[in-house]
Amino acid sequence: MIKNRNKNYLALIILTCVLLFANSKIIAQESSKIIISKDLKWSERMALSIMKRAPIAWQVDNNEKTKWDYKIGLLMTSFEKLHKKTNNPVYADYIKGYAETVINSSGEILNYKLEDYNIDNINAGKMLFDLYSRTKDNRYLTALQTLRKQLETHPRTNSGGFWHKKIYPYQMWLDGLYMGAPFYAQYTATFDKGKDLDDVAKQFEQVHLHTIDKKTGLLFHAWDESKQMPWANKETGTSPNFWSRSIGWYMMALVDVLDYMPKEHSKRKELIGYLNEISTTVAKYQDTSGLWFQVTDAGKKEGNYLEASGSEMFVYAFAKGANKGYLPEKYKKLAVKGFDGIVKNLIKVDEDGEIHITQVCASAGLGGNPYRDGSYEYYIKEKIKTDNSHGLGPFILAAVELEK
């Protein structure tokens, strides 16, 4: 009897493998049929190029297995905006296909540990609002509630800001504003009648108070309230340099959170003020090409380069800010100049129409092991990649916003 049971298990495993192999072949065949016409808008040309290279979203960045990931979450956010603009179900299906690989039928998130208190883990949750609304599948509601629960107990600075991660105590990074605040704002607006919007605004207030450089008006990448990290200024707690993508995260967070901040809310005007302040400053550092440099204020200093993701994020924030009336109309022109610069200088087009985004900083952070000191040399020496996910989602977001 035991032998028969083992045989049945073995047969089931073999059948599962066969089905998975067959399904992967079907997906590969479908992706090979994707035609990328030059007559399409840039947003769709990029989306279809991504789908051709990565038939299932987790395969972006050449990942070997699926994972719950903030970068893929950023990409899914861009596909959601594209779906709403085009009503093409292929983009919604791409999101759903990824979600089904990382959230099981009980709503458990793959490899997610609440006790890690990693603010990055919140970002991918934004795709779940629309998925739950469209499908009424309770797995997505459960996952949403799990992520919201993390924010209830997420450790904070003494002044009320979320730590970037449990392993980075008393630190707020600009990146973290995008990772947590838009989800937090959408959740409280959707399920809690906006009761936590003051707390959402507090996250920006803390970053605005502690990371702005009085000399340039730019925001430093991070702030250590304890001032204990070797990279932290012993007087201010700030990191030593300006990284364009980190400022881009902050600006995208502002324009996205404002979607859920009612006109009558007392903090709305404050956040719009922050957006105008940083936009005025960032505009001063736009290169004649329309792009921005990896180290924002360093210009053509040796080793610095025009970086894709930060430039795309600035374009998106400028365009959306102007479209929504948060920023003066002149920022729409700066956004167009920036997007034209991206297409002209950083986009490569294959003979079959597939497009690629070049000069994307693969990653940058502070502390950790190996240690990242936040120096100028550190930022310019991080790997530069083509089609890195940090540069894919913001390209689509910027394109969609400018195509309105």
TrEMBL record:
Gene3D superfamilies: 1.50.10.10. One of its GO terms (biological process) is carbohydrate metabolic process. The keyword Hydrolase applies. It comes from the Bacteria. Pfam families: Glyco_hydro_88 (PF07470). Keywords: Hydrolase. InterPro entries: 6-hairpin_glycosidase_sf (IPR008928), 6hp_glycosidase-like_sf (IPR012341), Glyco_hydro_88 (IPR010905), PolySaccharide_Degr_Enz (IPR052043). One of its GO terms (molecular function) is hydrolase activity. This is Glycosyl hydrolase family 88. It comes from Flavobacterium pectinovorum. The lineage of its organism: Bacteria, Pseudomonadati, Bacteroidota, Flavobacteriia, Flavobacteriales.
